[in-house]
Predict the structure.
Amino acid sequence: MTDFAATKALFHLPQGVIYLDGNSLGPLPKSAATRVSKAVSDEWGEMLITGWNKAGWMAQPGALGERIGRLIGAAAGSTVIGDTLTIKVFQALASGLSLRPGRKVILSDTGNFPTDLYMAEGLIKALDQGHVLKTVAPEDVAANIDETVAVLMLTQVDYRTGRLHDMNALTAQAQGCGALTIWDLAHSAGALPVDLTAANADFAVGCTYKYLNAGPGAPAFISVAPRHIDHIAPALSGWLGHAAPFAFDLDYRPGAGIERMRVGTPPVLQMAALAAALDVWDTADIADVRARSIELTDLFVTLVEAACPGLTLASPRDGYARGSQISFAHPDGYAIMQALISRGVIGDFRAPDIMRFGFTPLYIGEEEVRAAVAILAEILESRLWDRPEFKTRAAVT
Amino acid sequence: MTDFAATKALFHLPQGVIYLDGNSLGPLPKSAATRVSKAVSDEWGEMLITGWNKAGWMAQPGALGERIGRLIGAAAGSTVIGDTLTIKVFQALASGLSLRPGRKVILSDTGNFPTDLYMAEGLIKALDQGHVLKTVAPEDVAANIDETVAVLMLTQVDYRTGRLHDMNALTAQAQGCGALTIWDLAHSAGALPVDLTAANADFAVGCTYKYLNAGPGAPAFISVAPRHIDHIAPALSGWLGHAAPFAFDLDYRPGAGIERMRVGTPPVLQMAALAAALDVWDTADIADVRARSIELTDLFVTLVEAACPGLTLASPRDGYARGSQISFAHPDGYAIMQALISRGVIGDFRAPDIMRFGFTPLYIGEEEVRAAVAILAEILESRLWDRPEFKTRAAVT
């Protein structure tokens, strides 16, 4: 059984803050500060260029990918980190389309994170080969899977509502029609058990700055099922995905296996933070995290519905049907969230009217849930949110 | 006049090392260690998600791009940082081809860095629209510019020999034939004066971990001439290049100007190092750096040729015809470079037989040049390099 008091002690949590936004940016693992400082001073500073070998920088994308792969049930040697989630979506999509040359439909849903849809649009336009992006309501995905679909691209957990897709069932259905699947695990990895192997998923991508706590701008990951990787000619054929990057051949030859999904020089300082953040999982079990998350989110829903009139639950009521967040809708959600933040309860807002609260048992417990609801109730009762300073939209919401 | 003793004091240089590899990875600016630590502990640690606004993370790619833009003569508001140089090459190429729909040739040279050529190959294959990559010898580029060329893509300074292309002349010639130009400034930015505006260049890309000293895996940059930017529909249409990323629209609309060349979440920790590294240029003038670099490289060539028989100069003898490096060829170049590194003189090796030595006046002076040559001469005379341990190839050369 995971000792959540022990995991909480691994994080730096600012005084006076109840942090319910780990679904957007996880907090600082204390060891990450040390690890990054070491990468800067002892590695970059002292080893200089020799750090690529001596400090093992060059091998890190594969090694870190492997550690993430174990958290999401990926086959050994099928996961690598690098770039951003947006770029990894592009790689997966370009690969998927190339493996289904006769088909033209990318099927997704309106609950997918916009950058995934934007990347599909950009790829389709650049290819100019008659592909279309078909976007349906989340509950209509299954009904729209047919033989025209090249790739089914979904984010497992809806970023606004937390609604959870059935990865196993949709993957099986898509594959039954000859389509491939891309699962975006942005809100899944580190939040709930994922088993890509059991689901027989084709591609998975995700970021590491949410529930994996690797810091702002942390690198992303991509997993490709071993049955596909040798058949992929990467569209983003960068030198570090080459079979022999330091031979400096003039022609591209894809690297062995998942290494070919590497692109350019990996972000060494961000990788140091990621390495430290992944150490947390040496002491935490994802099944325990999931069970505790459902308890905490259920409690939050019960308490809010009892104490906070005017808020409408926007997440599935069934804990097993959602990720590790709870969303409530309110027409003045933006201002209410700003008022909450001013009182030390940090969640976030997603247009048009969604207040999101993420619950990460690694550092959030029942005490924080009760305290957050008490503050929310007080803000609503006092109408604290109804002030001009809480209504001015910031650049980043 | 730049005070090079003062700029040298801004860097951490390990004891007993003469660092002649700043053309591959610049050394640690002392202030970068402090700045990164602040980004980790004071920003990520204390501000958490609010750092995107409070610490200005979201605006940093444009602000840092602007500072780099000033170093390379880019128009105001035409440069942004992010991703890796490899990705930025892809963006520039995809944009360039889309602006010249009737033309099919990407012209480059065999002295271009392989990842640039690989990305062209990958793009061409993905597009499947009949484009070809034509790669000629560096000295034959001008003779191969004609009306079939869509994009002329060159690295200004040859990564092996240091040979410098004439950016102004080749750009004018290419544009005279209706082609667009992409200049890779990997070995130019921070090494020599570049004036993209005077050259009328269409696109420029570059990395920041070489002569800009921003650390291993530092983000890249892209500049797009203002006359083009509004006509570009980005192939990598990520959410942070969207006109309103936090509106979470389902459809992509490109952001204003150069902002559309942003893709995903920027690497906040690496940006902190870059911000500190760029401060060095507040006290250094690039014209002074260039003049001193030519003095130092000329001195190095003279001393090596006098003291080190068996080495063949692989760089242009004329200082104005090369970048800020000197390359010498030797059949046992790999082993000789390993022996040099074992004696504290760090350069690097590029297959098949090139030893590269980078000279960065910001922290390298005449004393280091003389000491390095003395050690090189001693290694050659004693045949120290002729030992098995210096002949085993490392993963990264």
